[in-house]
Amino acid sequence: MWKPSEVIGFVKDCVANGIKAVSLGGGEPFEYDGVFEVIGALQPIVYLSVTSNGLPLDDAGRWDALLRNRPDNIHVTIHRPDSGSEVDRVTRTVARLSAAGIRSGVNLMVSASAVDDARRVYARLRRTLGADQIILVPQRFSDTPTPRQLASVAGGQPFQSPDCILGCRRPERFCSVSWDKKANSCSFAGGRQRLATLDFKGLTDALARVDFAGCG
Fold first, then answer.
1. Nearest-10 Cα torsion for 167, 178, 50, 90
2. What span, in angstroms and rounded, lies between the C-alpha atoms of 57 and 90?
3. Residue 52: which H helix or E strand, with range?
4. Confidence bin at 135 (pLDDT 50/70/90)
């Protein structure tokens, strides 16, 4: 529901009011027709990251457009650590991004039933990536790992993950704005509120109306 000009105007007003970083997610942001217009306009004024499954970047046209309009960082998601083909593909994509001079990393989804697979994939990723380039993302709504299971994926070493792994609480430094122009303090929580205006005031007003209940 967002036009590229609306995204750009919204983020510019948020940046003018102190927002320091923006991440484009989805769905799949590289399937959005205006994504490179958005990246080109916003990257010079704010730290801009993109979360992707990486598949659209196999298209030569999209890859060339990315090289002309580079975000500060791209994190490619492994949804199924038990899928060797997906792990291989994401590993190749991250290496290709790095070779092109684009900082990249991996979001590794972890489910309670596939902790061993995630642990093997994490060890493989650490051979070429730093711990600061890998985010362990616990699966939500079903098959959610415990904090201890999530930590075991990193073999007892420091790791990155959402800071709510020890308990649900309303984030203080993050909010989520969705495709249908609604906002909440968490990407997973229900009860989103519509933006009355597409600017920083519209965002803060919408967040003030949220009755935050988390994703549980």
1. 70
2. 11
3. strand 47-52
4. very high
Q: What is the pLDDT of residues 68-92, one digit of tens each?
A: 999 999 999 999 999 999 999 999 9
Amino acid at site 15: V
Measured in degrees and rounded to the nearest 5, phi and psi for residue 110 equal -125, 125
Distance of CA 52 to the CA centre of its chain: 7
User: Angle at which helices 60-68 and 35-42 pack, to 10 degrees?
Assistant: 10
Give, for 182, the enclosing helix (H) or strand (E): strand 182-184
Asked if 184 and 142 count as a contact pair (C-beta separation under 8 A), the reply is no
Tokens of 178: 């969705």
Tokens of 42: 């916003």
Whole-angstrom CA distances from 71 to 49, 101, 103, 191, 202 are 6, 11, 9, 30, 25
* 3-class SS of residue 55: helix
Q: What is the pTM of this model?
A: 0.92
What CA–CA distance (Å, rounded) separates 212 from 216? 11
As to burial, measured by CB atoms within 10 angstroms (0-12 exposed, 13-18 middle, 19+ buried), residue 51 is: buried
Specify burial of residue 10 (Cβ count, 10 A radius: 0-12, 13-18, 19+).
buried
SS3 letters across 125-178: HCCCCCHHHEEEEECCCCCCCCHHHHHHHCCCCCCECCCCCCCCCCCCCCCEEC
